[in-house]
Amino acid sequence: MATPDRAAATMTISEEMAGRAEARGLLTLGVEEEYLLVDAVEPRAVEAVEAVFDQLPDDLRGAVQHEIIRSQIESASPPQLELRDLRDSMSRLRAGLAASAMRAGARLVAVGAAPAAGPRARMVDAPRYRRIHECFGDLSPGSGLNGMHVHVSVPDPETGVQILNHLRPWMPIFQAATANSPLSGGHDTGYASWRSLLWERWPTVGPTPYLESHEQYETLVSDLVASGAMLDKGMLYWYARLSANYPTVEIRMGDVCPTLDDAMLLAALARALVATLLRQVRDGRPASNVPHPLLMAAHWRAAHDGLEGLNIDMATRQTRPAWKLMRQLFEYVSPELERHGDLDTASVLLGRLREQGTGAARQRALLSRHGTVADVVDWLAAATRGER
């Protein structure tokens, strides 16, 4: 729910980078991450966002912004061509935010929803957020919900809409891979991504509909604004959408990842998938119009199971182990991973994710061994800082 204009400024690319991308036939890549702010000692969330902003160094201020709740903060990396440059940028952002939070008496935690019980956090006092609260009431619960959004460049909006159609069957597996919020109120919710269940209460959250054209996309967005279901284009919360301000497809893939390794893997896969689908669009291959209820079922399974359980193979409409679908995605996009120079890194990171499990699986393992949510939050804070 960050201010759209500020996010757009961060995602703007230079003419030089645009020229290099076009000359090499590559797509640019940028990532937005939302984080929870927790107490320096206790696992509960704290309303520390203004104190953290006061501690930010000047060189980070343009890439950091408020979220709707005072116990949240968001960063947006500049777009990059090279995955290593994206990692360097995100590493600096995480480290700088974590250090600023520490100076403010708090901790930065990359987690989808607050694991521990605590008082309800208040909204940030800004005109847009006040209006959201007036129109939608208490749909943004507790301490806030934290996601990861990946921006991949597309040549034009019409092509972008066709890519959105092709993306629809793949979105549940991204959601499963990012699952990182099994705990809420100090207990296991039974879901790998509890954030997903809370987030779906907003009226425009859900799978992207099958769209015939960019004109239909714009008409539908206008109709949704007119209906009151959203205030502006920034409140279009489909799992994949066109950026309202910049020529990208924005994949709103799920919970913020606990580690940069996880985030880099999924960002690389997202870019490779968009590049693969771009070729299909240019070849005139139509997207499969997967039924909306089936997509909803797959997203529910992703939220419930993560990668450790089952999901739906959209080609066969049968349930399969989610890890097999993840491997299928990886193999499908491997040619574009290689063309963008990401294949070796992504292969290593996929193996690491397979060995360690999703953020949800790691949190549950810690809770099983140590038995306290405080231990889980300690680990999450260390992982966010790059110490795990």
TrEMBL record:
Task: For this UniProt record, give its keywords in alphabetical order, as a comma-separated list.
Answer: ATP-binding, Ligase, Nucleotide-binding
What InterPro entries does UniProt report for this protein, alphabetically?
GCL_type2/YbdK_subfam, GCS2, Gln_synth/guanido_kin_cat_dom, YbdK
Q: Identify the domain of life.
A: Bacteria
Q: Which enzyme type, at the first EC level?
A: ligase
Which molecular function GO terms apply here? Answer: ATP binding; glutamate-cysteine ligase activity
Entry's EC annotation: 6.3.2.2
> Any one Gene Ontology biological process term?
modified amino acid biosynthetic process
Q: Which Pfam families match?
A: GCS2
Q: Record's Gene3D superfamilies?
A: 3.30.590.20
* NCBIfam families in the record: gshA_cyan_rel, PRK13517.1-1
**Mind telling me which PANTHER family this protein's record contains?**
GLUTAMATE--CYSTEINE LIGASE 2-RELATED (PTHR36510)
Task: Return the protein name.
Answer: Putative glutamate--cysteine ligase 2
